[in-house]
Amino acid sequence: MSTPGGPPQCEGMYSKLIDFEGSYDQLSRRSEAGPAAHLVFPSSVAPRLRGFGTFRLATICLAVLSAILLIAIISMASHNKNRAQGGGDAVAEAQKQKQGVNVSELVDSISKLQQEKKQLQGEKEEQQRAKEELQKAKEGLQREKEELQKANKELQREKEELQKAKEGLQREKEELQKANKELQREKDELQARLAVTKAPVVTTPKSTSAPIVCPNDWHLFNSSCYFISRTTRDWPESKSFCESKGAYLAIIHTPEEQTFLWDLLPRGHWNSYWFGLTDGQVEDEWKWVDGTPLVGGFWEEGEPNNHIDEDCGYIVKTNVLERVATRSWYDAPCTMYLPFICEKYMGPGASTGIPH
Fold first, then answer.
1. Tens of pLDDT along 273-318?
2. Which candidate, 216, 237, 236, places its Cα nearest to that of 227?
3. Rounded to 5 degrees, what are φ and ψ at 331?
4. Within 13 A of 186's CA, how many CA atoms are on the CB side?
5. Rounded Cα distance, 224 and 48, in Å
């Protein structure tokens, strides 16, 4: 600095600069940077500086100061860089170690993933094989299904053919049954005619003979009187009852006699009456109570059938089924309890006793 009115002085400034230098030297030693510590101004500089003008001196001082500042800045930057570099190495080492750990973990993860991939690949191949086997099984089942459908169609066709054949046979059966009924009817008529031709000859009393009179509850037909019981007995008891009255269980030879007796019977649910026919001695050899064999007869279709040891004949007159007189005989067990029909011959040669 210069005193008022005197020439420009730079010693004070230089001293200050020297003091600054010393301060900076101390600062540089702290920062372990040396270039600024060797900055020395020669002693000849000071006289020369006194000759400069104030402006030039200020400029030089400013330049020198700027240089010193630049050097200080560079030195501090270098120091800071060295420190930053030292810290960066530690950070880098830590990051390197961390990266090493991460790499190890990644390697383990990759190894595990490869194992899982291998396992999944094996499972995928197993599933693929299972899928192929299932596909083969599906194709086999599909073939079996098609074969079964084909067989089913064939069976359906055969069923339809059998149904048609069954319907044809049913029609034939109905036609045969119809023809059989017609033949049975013709047979019954022929048997009735045959029975008439073989029936015992009944001598009609001469007009000079006394007329036949039947007792009460007895009914006259030709030369016989007939009794329709209201009580029931089994066949042997019925036979004994008729014999106790000097009569016998009815013997029926002609369609006219059959029709006469059938008309006498009341129609009901299943009105049945014993008459004098049995095959009790020899099965299927039907005989009358007087021992003469049956010729013809007025059996219902399918009778006699000896269903449950049926050895005695009875007449049915019912309103349940349509029946006619000449097809109303059935066979039944002789132990059944039924009403019965007695007959007593009143023609020539007959006994004179009349049951009362």
1. 999 999 999 998 999 999 999 998 999 988 998 888 899 999 998 8
2. 216
3. -110, 150
4. 6
5. 202
Give the range of the structural domain holding residue 248, as residue numbers without chain letter. Answer: 218-345
- Inside any domain, residue 268: yes
Half-sphere exposure of 124 toward its Cβ, with a 13 Å CA cutoff? 6
Helix axes 54-198, 11-31, angle to 10 degrees: 30
Separation CA 9–CA 20 (nearest Å): 18
CATH of the domain at 262: 3.10.100.10
| Of the residues 60, 95, 130, the one at which a domain ends | 95
Whether 333 contacts 304, CB under 8 Å = no
Is 6 inside a domain boundary? no
User: Which stretches of 245-281 are DSSP H helices?
Assistant: 255-264
Contact 316, 328 (CB under 8 A): yes
CA distances 84 to 97, 98, 114, 256, Å, are: 19, 20, 43, 153
pTM for this entry: 0.44
- 263 located within any domain: yes
Q: Is 237 a member of any domain?
A: yes
Tell me if 36 sits within 8 A of 17, measured CB to CB: no
191-247 residue pLDDT tens: 555 654 544 444 444 445 678 889 889 999 999 999 999 999 999 999 999 999 999
Measured at the CA of 292, the angle between CA 286 and CA 296, to 5 degrees, comes to 55
Given a cut of 60, whether residue 13 has pLDDT beyond it is no
* Counted domains in the chain: 2
Q: In what order do the strands lie in the sheet with 248-249?
A: 218-221, 224-228, 341-345, 248-249
Counting Cα atoms < 13 Å in the Cβ hemisphere of 33 gives 20
